[in-house]
């Protein structure tokens, strides 16, 4: 998957332009309390609270048919938080499924289809959540493990990500594969593997620490 979403290269503070960096392919919170998680002692995070910058953060997706064709697009993130204290991290992110977009076509029929019951059923489930369960460095990569609740289904999802710090702001970018069958997305005419990516920008709440 060519980098063009988790990309978690979008925000001016990092000197990236989101749409300009996505020419071809994709990059890419259970209404429940925050889940506790562990973080490697070599974390570049300082203890504190971090808040998502929604305008600069997106999840990207790419869906393909078994025989020819496909579409790609993004899902905006509504909110997100990460907290670290004494080596423990917790976090929760909310995706705005009702605002899901395809970027390779302006077909209203496709947009309506993606929101329909056999795909994301956004009338019933307008939001999806990702609850962080672990943030840990493995080899040269940071791994974010958590539970994605999409529609009425919850399954583990792991993102290998790159963390880029700049002052009090962090960019998380990475890609993974979602199996559409786990969340009953689409139909047998589609490939089971859906590449997704994230560009997530978090800012440390320095004012709270003063």
Distance from first to last alpha carbon: 43 Å
Number of helices: 1
Average pLDDT: 81
Give the CATH architecture: Beta Barrel
Oligomer: single chain
Major sheet? 11 strands, mixed
CATH superfamily: Lipid/polyisoprenoid-binding, YceI-like
How many DSSP E strands? Answer: 11
Assign an overall shape: elongated
What is the helix/strand order? EEEEEEHEEEEE
What is the number of independent domains?
1
Structural class: mainly beta
Q: Which regions have little confidence, pLDDT < 50, spanning 5+ residues?
A: 1-42
The whole-angstrom Rg is 17 Å
Helix proportion: under 10%
CATH topology: Lipocalin
CATH hierarchy, class: Mainly Beta
Indicate the proportion of strand residues: over 45%
Q: How do you describe this structure in short?
A:
This protein is mainly beta. It is 3% helix and 49% strand.
Descriptive account of the structure:
With 210 residues, the protein is mostly beta strands. Helix content is 3%, strand content 49%. Strands 1, 2, 3, 4, 5, 6, 7, 8, 9, 10 and 11 form an eleven-stranded mixed beta sheet that branches. It is elongated and about 50 Å long. The termini are far apart. Mean pLDDT is 81; it is low at 1-42.
């Amino acid at each position: 998957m060519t980098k063009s979403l988790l990309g978690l290269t979008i925000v001016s503070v990092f000197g990236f332009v989101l749409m300009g960096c996505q020419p071809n392919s994709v990059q890419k919170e259970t209404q429940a309390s925050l889940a506790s998680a562990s973080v490697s002692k070599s974390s570049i995070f300082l203890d504190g609270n971090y808040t998502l910058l929604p305008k600069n953060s997106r999840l990207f997706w790419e869906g393909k048919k078994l025989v020819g064709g496909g579409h790609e697009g993004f899902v905006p993130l509504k909110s997100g938080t990460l907290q670290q204290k004494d080596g423990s991290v917790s976090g929760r992110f909310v995706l705005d499924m009702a605002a899901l977009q395809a970027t390779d076509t302006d077909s209203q029929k496709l947009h309506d289809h993606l929101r329909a019951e056999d795909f994301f059923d956004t009338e019933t489930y307008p939001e999806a959540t990702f609850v962080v369960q672990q943030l840990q460095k493995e080899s040269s990569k940071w791994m974010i493990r958590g539970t994605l609740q999409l529609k009425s289904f919850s399954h583990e999802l792991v993102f290998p990500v790159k963390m880029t710090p700049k002052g009090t702001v962090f960019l998380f970018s990475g890609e993974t594969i979602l199996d559409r069958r786990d969340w009953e997305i689409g139909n047998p005419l589609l490939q089971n593997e859906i590449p997704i990516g994230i560009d997530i920008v978090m800012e440390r709440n320095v004012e709270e620490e003063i």
